[in-house]
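Subgroup meeting minutes
Present: P.N., E.W., G.H.
Scribe: E.W.

1. P.N. recapped why we're keeping a running log of single-chain structure predictions: easier to compare across weeks, and new members can see raw inputs and outputs side by side.
2. G.H. added today's entry (332 aa).
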Amino acid sequence: MPGLSVEQLRAAIAQNRFAVFGRAGMDMFAHPPGVKSEKAQEFRSGLGGSAANIAAGLCKFGAQASLITSVSDDAVGRFCLNQLKHYGVDATHVRAVGGEYRNSLAVYESVLEDFQNVIYRNGAADFQVTEEDVDAVDLTGFGTLVTAGTVFAAEPSRGAHFHAFDKAAAIGLPVIFDIDYRPYSWPSPEVAADVLSRAGAASDMIVGNDEEFGFMAGGMDKGLAKARTLSETGVAIVIYKMGEGGAVTFAGGEEIRTGIYPVTAVKPNGAGDSFMAGLLAGIADGLPLRDAILHGSACAAIVVSQPGCAPAMPNHTQLADFLARHSGPTEV
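Output recorded in log:
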């Protein structure tokens, strides 16, 4: 519902009830930390997939989160369902699909140098979400709709999620959009840029990194201007993340610059999902926007310093302990 004010968006997030659209997957990470995948004698498993990670992170902070997606009708799909239940995520609207569709699988390692993340996405089950799946969800029961850009990478998922955006707009439900550009999921960069730009223009909050905004804008040097323009044309909150450089947030005509919490990282993945969960939880808790952004940054730091993604996401106690023990944020 572009055109929403920052305070209206904050009030919607404060309801702490999130409809999260997007994939759930299985992560397999080499154990112990420091071992390359090809030399590992042991792997550990965990819930993965951007949307599932965000939903699990929100539930760890006490929110209500429902995941809307499809999983494969097999042991891996059931693993994901059991993991969602473990974290308290409502899986009422997770549909099992048969045939040759398979759940996403990520095989990675807790190693920064030459980090490897092998993604299996052929015949992805989550791309089978349909408009009928969206229509089965009573969106009036939620405060906000949250999704990540991968849902738009293929049909029928693309059409189904634009349908969800239309339904959200019709009832005044704010849309929170993580750009989450994964080139391997898209037929071409040109299609991705067009579709993600359309999705961004229909959102009330957009979160992405400098590469993602640069991609949407047609050049890395244009990314910050793209983020600023989106905020000036109706998107209530736009967060432009720059890795170690912190973030620039555009909200209600204000420009907020925030730093990061330096840690010794063991892997790069999971940071964006944890940032989103921590950010939304902070806003739901009534924190000023700057403080909520910094909570998101702290959550990202926690996740990259531990193996796994959903298993590494913090709760309130773990976040408070981290903030008490670590210096930061950095100056920007």
